[in-house]
């Protein structure tokens, strides 16, 4: 610190000396100019001019006054030279003449004023810096709070978008439910196959279950789509085409079972299907073999009388009437049920299903469960479902020819 103070002191003394030299040099120049003017005046008065006594006396007085001013100027010049010599030779601590001391004192006062003014500005700048720093801290807090609020708004927006998508999906379902479903129009439409693997879906998976009721392992049940699975006999389904892209499933609106908890009459599970619901469909062909056809979506439902359904599905109507009452009941009850259908007391539900995919996970689980070879020695995995239906048709024609014979 002492070294820095010495350096600062030396710089201050050098600056002060420079100012003193400049001021004294100006003063010396003015003295020299005055002396030169006096010399010129003396030269002009050396010429003898006849004057009166009063004029001579006045000229003498003026000459004495000018000589006195010349002496004062010479003395001031000498003092200026001494000040300049003292400033150039020695440090500031050397004694200066009175004029130089006064000048140095004035310069010190001016320098102190400058220092005080600079310190005042420095303090003001420090205060501004503190205020700016405090303002920056408050601004950072505001920015942080705004970022948190923005994140909350984004999260709320994402939630709102999800709720909006769910509402749109629900609205779509409601619109689909509001549409009037016509089984005949649905069967006549040429709908595209929306399954991911059409070739695999057409091939299907045919396997033996050892009876007319579908039996699946727990692993296969767990592999089904979230909506579960549906199993139907060929007597309950009306297909729109050989590709099995869409169909209408017939089901009685009510079933009679004396042992049921509802007092005999109950609604079958098909009546609970809703448009948009997706399920894996298993289908039993005419040879009593079960096959997996793919994932189907419910597209609508309509309840019709027997006469209306007979216009496009005569054989399936008879099956729906037969399964209205459980097996093992007296014949009189079955006859009463048929009479109720004839009088339009009981009706038939027509549920439309469209294939929208093929569950490969379920297919991989089902493959080990089915026989590896068919009766003809060909792998059942490569036997298309269409071929099985053609064989069923041929078997039916052979049976009819045999009976005719």
UniProtKB/TrEMBL annotation:
The UniProt regions of compositional bias labelled Polar residues, in chain numbering, are 373-382
Its keywords, alphabetically, are: Coiled coil
Location of region: Disordered? 368-405
From which domain of life does this come?
Eukaryota
Question: Which residues are in coiled coils?
Answer: 21-83, 150-177
**Keyword flag Coiled coil:** yes
Protein name, per record:
Uncharacterized protein
């Amino acid at each position: 610190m002492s070294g820095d103070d010495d350096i600062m002191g030396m710089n201050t003394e050098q600056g002060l000396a420079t100012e003193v030299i400049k001021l004294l040099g100006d003063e010396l120049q003015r003295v020299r100019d005055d002396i030169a003017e006096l010399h010129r005046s003396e030269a002009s008065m050396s010429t003898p001019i006849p004057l009166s006594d009063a004029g001579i006396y006045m000229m003498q007085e003026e000459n004495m006054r000018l000589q006195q001013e010349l002496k004062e100027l010479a003395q001031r010049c000498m003092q200026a030279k001494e000040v300049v010599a003292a400033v150039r030779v020695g440090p500031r601590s050397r004694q200066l003449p009175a004029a130089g001391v006064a000048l140095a004192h004035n310069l010190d006062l001016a320098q102190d004023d400058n220092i005080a003014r600079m310190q005042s500005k420095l303090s003001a700048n420090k205060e501004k810096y503190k205020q700016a720093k405090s303002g920056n801290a408050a601004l950072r807090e505001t920015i942080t709070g705004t970022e948190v609020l923005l994140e909350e708004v984004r999260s709320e927006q994402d939630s709102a978008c999800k709720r909006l998508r769910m509402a749109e999906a629900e609205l779509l379902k409601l619109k689909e439910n509001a549409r009037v479903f016509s089984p005949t129009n649905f069967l006549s439409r040429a709908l595209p196959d929306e399954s991911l693997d059409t070739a695999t879906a057409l091939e299907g998976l045919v396997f033996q279950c050892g009876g007319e009721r579908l039996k699946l392992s727990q692993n296969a049940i767990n592999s089904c789509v979230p909506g579960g699975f549906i199993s139907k006999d060929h007597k309950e389904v009306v297909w729109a085409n050989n590709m099995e892209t869409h169909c209408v499933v017939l089901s009685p609106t009510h079933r009679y079972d004396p042992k049921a908890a509802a007092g005999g009459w109950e609604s079958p599970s098909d009546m609970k299907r809703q448009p948009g619901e997706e399920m894996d469909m298993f289908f039993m062909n005419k040879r009593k073999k079960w096959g997996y056809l793919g994932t189907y979506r419910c597209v609508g439902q309509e309840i019709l009388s027997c006469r209306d359904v007979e216009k496009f599905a005569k054989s399936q109507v008879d099956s729906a009437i037969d399964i209205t009452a459980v097996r093992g009941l007296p014949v009189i009850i079955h006859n009463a049920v048929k009479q109720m259908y004839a009088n339009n007391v009981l009706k038939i539900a027509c549920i439309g299903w469209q294939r929208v995919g093929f569950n490969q996970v379920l297919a991989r689980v089902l493959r080990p469960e089915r026989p590896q070879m068919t009766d003809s020695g060909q792998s059942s995995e490569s036997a298309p479902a269409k071929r099985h239906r053609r064989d069923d048709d041929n078997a039916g024609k052979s049976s009819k020819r045999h009976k005719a014979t």
